[in-house]
C-alpha cells in the first residue's frame, strides 16, 4: 500500500455521506461498503420516501438495491438523484428566563398580598426583558404580563389616592 492509498482509508466513525459522490471507477467507488454504510443509505431513502421524493415502487426497488450493494459506487448510484439530507440535529429549546416568571408571579401576587409585590413585578419585568433581549431566552410574554400587572396596580393606586383626595376636598368645601 502506498502513501496515496493510505489517504483513502477513512475512520469507520466518519463515513462519507450517503448522497456524496464516491468517485465511481476510482477511489471510494471501488471500496467495499459495510453494513453500516448500507444502513445509512436505507435511512436516507426512508427520509426521501417520507418527504415524497420517491414512490412506493421506487423506494422498494432502491431498498433492495441498497441491501445488495457491494461498493460505495453502488450505494452512490442509489441516491445520486436525491438532494443531500438536511441537518436533522435537534435544536435546543431556549430556556425561560427566571426573572420573567418572577415578574408574572409578583404581578399575580398583588391580588393576594396587595401592593407589596408591585415594585418587584415591575423591576423583575424590566430586568427580564433586558436579559431576554441579550440572551435569546424565552419569557417575553411573561415579563410583559408582570410589567402590565405591576404598572396597572401603580396607576390604580394613584387613581384611588387622587380620587380619595378629590372627594375629601369636596367634603370639606361644603
Give a structural overview.
By secondary structure, the chain is mostly helical. It has two domains: about 5-80, no CATH class; about 100-174. About 65% of the residues lie in helices and about 0% in strands. The protein contains seven helices and no strands. It starts with a helix and ends with a helix. The relative contact order is 0.10.
Write out key terms for the chains shown.
7 helices, 174 residues, 2 domains, rod-shaped, 0% strand, mainly alpha
Radius of gyration: 33 Å
* Percent of residues in helices: 55-70%
Give the strand tally: 0
Query: How far apart, in Å, are the first and last alpha carbons?
Result: 113 Å
How would the blueprint of this fold be written?
Layout: H1 3-8, H2 35-50, H3 56-68, H4 72-79, H5 98-113, H6 118-135, H7 140-173
